[in-house]
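Our preliminary data section would be incomplete without showing what the modeling component actually yields. Below, a chain of 247 amino acids is followed by its predicted structure, encoded as tokens that our downstream tools consume directly.
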Amino acid sequence: MSSTPSQTPTRICVFCGSKPGASPAHLAAARALARSMHDNGIHLVYGGGTTGLMGEVARTLVKLSGQDAVMGVTPAQLLSWERPDASAGAEKTKKHTKVPGPWLLRMGQKGGGGGKRGDEEQEEAKLLLNEEYGHVTIVPDIQIRKKYMMELIRDGGPGSGFVALSGGIGTLDELMEVVSWNQMGAHTRGSCMLNVDGYWDGVVQWVDKVIEEQFAGEYVRRILGSVSSAGEVVGWLKGYEDGRTSE
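Predicted structure:
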């Protein structure tokens, strides 16, 4: 299944580790999620890395759906770490033309121009293309990366949302930020943890404690879900309804 050119594709933003993890179950979950996204015509937004779970989910989806189904977003200062292939000269670099530049979105603008600062940042942004990992947008810093990824999901087709595969501190940081942005009304998309072999059990228990101690309401369980298999992710996001309430 695939979207027609006139449709905005459903997009899933995947947060995950740049390492493969100790158990092969983590890489298997990344591949399974990519297959489920392909079967449902869903595009991937991710951190742009080529190693670990990040590389696995992107590489698998490109094989199945093609380069245009994958958009990575990488801060310039992390390029040599997250995209070693780029520094090795394996990629074709060109000016960003596919979507409005994140440096403009940050300034609240939808198109070119925006003064000297916007012009300078526009010159710094690049779109890299790799046959194995798809497209990656290079942005000035990690905060712009986070905001831009959120906006791509906010403006995606029905069933768009955020998913956390297994990962470290950065993965948890990105997940909690989009949950917080949902609370504040910056977007109305759901966030879901793919809980491989109980990896996210501690976070699930912490959410229960937050609600028990009345630091947040029951709505938190609605905007941050947990599923145990890749096959459940798409259905959870499709069934998501705005979880914010007056609690």
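Residues 87-124 have pLDDT under 50 and may be disordered. The beta strands are 11-15, 43-46, 70-75, 92-95, 126-130, 134-139, 161-164, 191-194, 224-227. Preliminary results of this kind motivate Aim 1 of the renewal.
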